[in-house]
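Box 3.1. Reading complex inputs
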Amino acid sequence: MTFSLRSCSHSAHNASALTPDLCHHGNTRAVSQCMGNKMNGSVGPMRVLVTGGSGLVGRAIERVVKEESGEREEEEWIFLSSKDANLMSAEETRAVFERHRPTHVIHLAAMVGGLFRNMRQNLDFWRNNVFINDNVLQAAHDFDVVKVVSCLSTCIFPDKTTYPIDESMIHNGPPHETNFGYAYAKRMIDVQNRALFQQYGRRYTAVIPTNVFGPHDNYNIEDGHVLPGLIHKTYLAKKEGTPLQVWGSGRALRQFIYSLDLARLFLWVLREYDEVEPIILSVGEEDELSIKFAADAVVEALGFEGDVIYDTSKADGQFKKTASNAKLRKYLPDFKFTPFRAAIKETCDWFVANYDSARK
Amino acid sequence: MNTGSGLKVIAILDYYSSPCFKCILTPEVFIKPHLSVSLSLSLSLCQMDGSVGPMRVLVTGGSGLVGRAIERVVKEGGGREGEKWIFLSSKEANLVSAEETRAAFKKHRPTHVIHLAAMVGGLYRNMRQNLDFWRNNVHINDNVLNMSHEFGVVKVVSCLSTCVFPDKTTYPIDETMMHNGAPHDSNYGYAYAKRMIDVHNRALFQQYGLKYTAVIPTNMFGAHDNFNIEDGHVMPGLIHKTYLAKKEGKPLHVWGSGRALRQFIYSLDLARLFLWVLREYDEVEPIILSVGEEDELTVKDAVDAVVEGFGFKGEVIYDTSKSDGQIKKTANNAKLRKYLPDFKFTPFKQAVKETCDWFAANYDTARK
């Protein structure tokens, strides 16, 4: 059933008939965006633009939307990739919004990389991500998007901090030196969200996942994150009959979240979560794991039987980043995460089956 | 290349192929205005030992409070032979636009930049428009720093402020504490945009070895300020209100309780220090430019100095229903004193008197 864009009858003069933080119509073009503007917790039919739609989280959301009745009748989901638009360009970003006229945005697009790439290119990580984020948030505002859910990360939190970290602590000190460019750029999404709310009443928000993993990740060993890097290296070690070299001591601690679980939670945030302050999306503190534990799970999933060597000359990155998911649990006490080993097995199976086309 | 002036050019590098250009000229040579060259001829002497040769300095925000003070100090003996100083204003280029910023850099080809341009305002305007303060300043700062990098600028000195420091903090604040917590809620948009200059500087140093830096003045005042009462800062606002109160024979209404504490720095003193930072200060970490903690004053002290500066004899009323902003922001100038133990600041009452005199003499053209 196609989604009519012309049924919205209110104009700037009728804006007061809606809840006050909606429909700031400065022009007739924005009138058509009003479908789905219900801030009582539910939303009507939406047109959702997902930036970074071809990435790890984007693909997971796409799968959940398609396979798990995530898509409601009359909704439209558009998954954007960098092929469609370079979001570092304001013009290209606006062209995308002009073309798709979303009512909602899930903003995942970013310049990302693992520890070692961040350490070398803090300027690029800072600038490119600030541009992307500013372009998307500003275009969303200009095109009267009802809600934007952006994606932060626990790696942007203050380096010197008490644990567990929670949503109120993001700005309480400088981030870790290794990725301060990326970290500040992500933090500024929250600053811009708050400013959009303060100046215009927009309820744009953000989520804070811990370490994400799953199919469709970037498995590049030099630039990748810890789990996809491990999966790729173990695959090659098994194939070539060489030892598995793990960077760092293996003692660093992380909370891992499976991309499909994250996607399910993203949909809940989009539809139901009404705060401007971000929300941590993670397994609980009790499920924090060491890198060694993760390596063992990957070794088991791929059936690797060779030597595992820990190269302690390489950096561990932040030793721990324990995040509290109390806020999530307050809202969704019964949400079930996929068990870690099962999620690793699924991911490894996917990687083996899709090795040739996987990003690496 | 025939320059017609006996110019000995040892090495010319095209701007776009090198992040740091060097062009060594024999000292007695000068470039005649009618000279036309098809290559990008650089006049910079990139000496990284702390001293600099003749510079071409672009001052963004050149028509503002600090820019005008720098211009005056440069003209009255602070400049050196062979230097060229360009004072840019928003009339010439809108630095929120990347294209216009690039055009300005292309036109002026600076070797050094003093970056003062910003969207600024007093307490009340900030409270209403955090988004605009955030976005416009991020764009301006990114454009200037990025163009400086691209055009091989040796050094950029940007301008932060003590108002960008964490709200919850111990006192006195020093240069290491800037990012240690969230800024005050009243101006977080402006504050974060300014803080990100320091982030950008550090990233430029980490990725490219560039030593761009920044200064952190406390509350500045002086001639050529923005004296708008609604949007202005505390000193120019007081000066304007006192002038009007005297002229109209009305009471002087001061917003807030008068108990808030501030360190004030006269724009001419700040300008002298800016020149020192540009020439001599070699760190990437910013430096606080301020009178010492012992010279912290209340807003009431400032009111009294302005009242005296104008000879105002009417009533002074403190409207405590208005916000004080941050009650104190005491900054530590130990780093400055370590470098310049003998620097003399203009005495406060004298600086206020000079500023009041300027305002009265220039009322019609003053920004308000």
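In summary: Residues 9-39 of chain B form one domain.
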